[in-house]
Amino acid sequence: MNAATAIDNDVTWQTLCSKTDLVAHSGVAARLDGTDTQVALLYLPGQTPEVYAVDNHDPFSNANVIARGIVGDIKGEPVIASPLYKQHFRLNDGVCVEDESVHLRTWEVKMEDDDVMIKA
Amino acid sequence: MSMPTSPNAPRLIVIGNGMVGHHLIEQLIACGAPRDYAITVFGEERHIAYDRVHLSEYFSGRDADSLALASADDYAAHGIDLRLHDTVTAIDRDANEVVTESGRHPYDRLVLATGSYPFVPPIPGNDREKCLVYRTLDDLDAIREAAEDATTGVVVGGGLLGLEAANALRGLNLDTAVVEFAPRLMPMQVDAEGGTLLREKIEALGVQVLTGRATQHIEAGETSFHRMVFQDDKMLETDLIVFSAGIRPRDQLARDCALEIGERGGVVIDDRCLTSDPSILAVGEVALWQESIFGLVAPGYQMAKVAAATLTEGDATFTGADMSTKLKLLGVDVGAIGDAHGERTPGARTFRYLDEIKQEYRKLVVSSDGKKLLGAMLVGDNATYDTLMQYYANGLALPQDPASLILPSSEGAPTLGPDALPDTATLCSCHNVTKGDVCATLDAGALDLASIKGETKASTGCGGCAALLKSVVDHELAARGVEVDQSICEHFAYTRQELYSLVRVEGIKTFSELIEKHGTAAGHGLGSSSAPKLGSSSAPRLGCDICKPAVTSILAACFNEPITDAAHVPLQDTNDTFMANMQKNGTYSVVPRIPGGEVTPEKLIVLGEVGKKYGLYTKITGGQRVDLFGAQLHQLPDIWGELIEAGFETGHAYGKATRTVKSCVGSTWCRYGVQDSVGMAIHLEERYKGLRSPHKLKFAVSGCTRECAEAQSKDVGMIATENGWNLYVCGNGGMRPRHGELFATDLDDEQLIRTIDRFLMFYIRTADRLQRTSVWRENLEGGLDYLKDVVLDDSLGLGDELETQMQHIIDTYECEWANTLSDPEKLKRFRTFVNDDSPDPDIIATEERGQLRPA
Fold it and tell me: Is this entry keyworded Repeat (chain A) (predicted)?
């Protein structure tokens, strides 16, 4: 693990990876330090925010695949489509468009220099 | 699958498995009858029901399987006991038993679908060797055998079936003559003027036509096998005689058990297809309804539908059938509608148009007031048939000047729009589908032509109504305010075909450029409540999982830049992105290319070693290659490093692209093979590997007519002939199987490649997203003939362009895995986690039959 931690206004920010690890307009997966949680980091250069973090675990297939979906938008709302059964999840709140009772967790992400940091 | 039949269910026996007998089974299945009856079908022939209408194609490349209307499995799947090659010899009405060669079989209900037999005129000598009939596949085999050492052949009978038989003899390269007793050909359908024209056209094809000839006897010939002697002592010598002088109902079984029979034959039925014994029904050409035998398939199908209703307590009745026909005999169009001779209605008037240069003849028979069409006759061009048929069948008022309907189109014949048709208008006579049926299916949610065809079966018989059906569907959708939005998705107000043109014409090479120039405006369709935080000006236009892969496929077909380039990577489904097939637990399977299914032992060992080393589940695919399952993302580059080292290339099993070219072993090893099918399969697979298309593409090559490679179920299939290759296109296995259609025959290697190049590129240009060739073909306006025009005759002048574009794809082919392995930047993506080298801990495998599978 190469994650470092820092304290910022009583909230823990964790460095996950470097900006060069991200794939533009697509996703990569990362592990949260000290937990079983996997996050999908989705990088949309030029958008605000530029990086989204949601669960990598797909609740429909029970496989850790969300980072490998296609990023897009539905009526301007950024979404990611699960690569297995193609449900769409909103990147802003993780809610599944096809079934609003299902959602992915979301995390705040920021970039500091080349570091990609997650609030967790 | 159907529900099982109860052991005490009443027993239904159907005698006869011809077109109508088979249609009855289809109708019974549609009514759910296999639940209520234990159904047994006896067929006298060796073959399951086949398409007799297209029988002459048996000599131009089609075989028994491709003419078959069903398979034994289809029957078995519905619990129907099909007994072929088991002739029924008697019906014992006292015991309620059917007697066959194999034994006695009790029935509760019985259907006679025995059809008809060819009438052989009582001419002395008609029992000589090489005097044959034309009715069944076995008859055709006998004709083919007799033709082996023959150079000439005569058909006795110049009607519809006679001319079909003449076509078959021409297909066997015999010098062919037609002998007709009446003063003209097709006396039932055409008048003297039409008959003259028809004769000229048929003689121009090299077929000799003798009319007004009654054969007195047949004897041994001097220069040929037979000599036919006519009433005026004139003679004709020939090697082979085929009688095709009409049909007679096969009513012997019914006669023997004393059912009511018509004066001139035929089992008498009522409006519900019941015979004089209400436990017995009759359908098709054996049945006599109101003193008429119906010798066409459409009325037979209607009877089958009525009989199915009668057997399942439905209430349909047979009300007679229209004998109008549209035919292409020896390549000559002939059409007859209603009272084509104008003999049945007093005071009928006619309009006639004859063009002896173009050899076209059209005649209208109208009511005395000129307002209704009573009949029509067409020779040489059937283009007006559909419109005239609608006027006739629906009693529509004729235009002010009825002649405008048959004058050349430059005279501006008014077209009969789909809105002018009443709901009762029959669109498809083969399956008796009305405009009302189509509308009801639309109301039930069908939204395209293919689903209308699937639901109603319209246009799946002879296909003659395809254009009419499409215009009705389009019109009806528009009329009921259903906006047929052809846009590929919310990001582009264009169809795939339109996007393809934009990319090609403007030379657009990236998705971002395309969406910037041609995407819908930002905020288009932005619901006021769905994205409250985003103003329309800042709403991102990212594309989506529909347009992104579709555009990538278009870009690949136009420019063929590596899909692994950074600009293309985020656009694709995970399978294309990581060049492997994601399975349900998030791991991937790997399929290296094995062209033609030919693999050396050394390479096979490498596959085994790689599978063993990485703990991969190993399975043989249907496309003659090996699939290795269970690789995690980070393992893929290592696996491919070893495979490429051993000489493998990527197999594109993950892409909407060329998959495999399956082959049988061909002439190299097989004693039946007539061409090197493996060699051709490898050549084709090497040529088209990497080609991206609207959907996956499967090919197969069979080395002889036994068709072991199952080429007729592929997008592109080749079957070897003595002279080259027969090409089949647009076949499909999968959810909705479709036989490939014979596209061209006896092509040499070079012609074959050129034809496939054009066919594939035309498909890639014009198909919808994720549309297989089979569905594309079914939605293609103009059908197979149009496709042949474009590809074989280059009617659009596109041939060179299509070939050049294909050559570009071939010249720029690169193995995507080799490309990736050579670039550390591209390899970075193949990490399960960007911050941890460990595998995904949630992937758990268990062992089964000596291999690992997901737990």
Answer: no
The fold for domain B131-245 equals FAD/NAD(P)-binding domain (3.50.50)
When scoring B487, B834, B842 by the number of chain A Cβ atoms within 10 A, the one with the most, hence best to mutate, is: B834
Please, what is the Cα angle at B401 between B387 and B424, to 5 degrees? 35
Closest of B203, B159, B204 to residue B184, by C-alpha: B159
- Cα pseudo-dihedral A63, A67, A69, A74, rounded to 10: 120
Q: From chain A, pick out residues whose CB is under 8 angstroms from the CB of B573.
A: 70, 83
Each residue's pLDDT tens digit, B461-480: 666 677 678 778 878 887 77
DSSP reduced 3-state for B716: strand
- Asked if A64 lies within 8 A of B840 by C-beta distance, the reply is yes
Q: Which fold has domain B11-117+249-311?
A: FAD/NAD(P)-binding domain (3.50.50)
DSSP string, B648-684: --B--TTSSBEEEEEE--GGGT-SS--S-HHHHHHHH
Nearest residue of A to residue B588 by CA position?
A65
- Write out the CATH class of domain B661-822: alpha beta
**pLDDT tens, residue by residue, B675-701:** 999 999 999 999 999 999 999 999 999
CB B273 within 8 Å of CB B307: yes
For B497-532, the pLDDT digits (tens) are 899 999 988 899 999 999 999 998 654 433 333 333
Q: Do B570 and A25 touch (CB under 8 A)?
A: yes
Q: Are B118 and B24 in contact (CB under 8 A)?
A: no
User: Which residues of chain B carry a pLDDT beneath 70?
Assistant: 1-7, 409-417, 461-464, 467, 482-485, 521-539
CA atoms of B178 and B157, how far apart (whole Å): 7
Cβ neighbours of A24 in B, within 8 Å: 566, 570
Q: Which of B232, B212, B219, B231 has the alpha carbon at shortest distance from B126? A: B219
DSSP bridge pairs for B365: B350, B375
Which among B527, B533, B540 is the nearest to A73, CB-wise? Answer: B540
pLDDT at B538: 56
pLDDT digit string, tens, across residues B48-93: 999 888 888 888 778 888 889 998 888 998 999 999 999 999 999 9
The encoded tokens of residue B331 equal 């390549």
B526 burial type by CB count under 10 A (0-12 exposed, 13-18 middle, 19+ buried): middle
Q: With CB atoms and an 8 Å threshold, state whether A70 touches B829.
A: no
Could you tell me the residue ranges of all domains in chain B?
Answer: 11-117+249-311, 131-245, 496-526+537-572, 661-822
- Give yes or no on whether B11-117+249-311 and B131-245 have one common fold: yes
This complex has an ipTM of 0.91
CB proximity B568 to A under 8 Å: no
- Placement of tokens 């006579």 in the chain: B429
Sign of CA dihedral B778, B780, B781, B784: negative
Q: Is residue A98 predicted with pLDDT exceeding 50? A: yes
Contact B330, B207 (CB under 8 A): yes
**What domains can you pick out in chain A, each with its CATH number?**
5-119 (2.102.10.10)
Q: Does B835 contact A65 at a Cβ distance shorter than 8 Å?
A: no
From chain B residues 732-761, the ones with a CB under 8 A of any chain A CB are none
Q: Which of B538, B573, B842 sits opposite A64 (nearest CB)?
A: B842
CB contact under 8 A, A23 and B833: no
Distance from chain centroid for Cα B512? 40
- CB contact (8 A) between residue A83 and residue B574: yes
Q: What is the pTM of this model?
A: 0.57
Query: pLDDT at position B397, please?
Result: 85
Burial B632-648 (b: 16+ CB within 10 A, else e): bbbbbbebbeebbebeb
DSSP E strand boundaries for chain A:
5-8, 11-18, 27-31, 38-43, 51-55, 57-58, 63-64, 70-74, 77-81, 88-90, 106-107, 109-112, 115-119
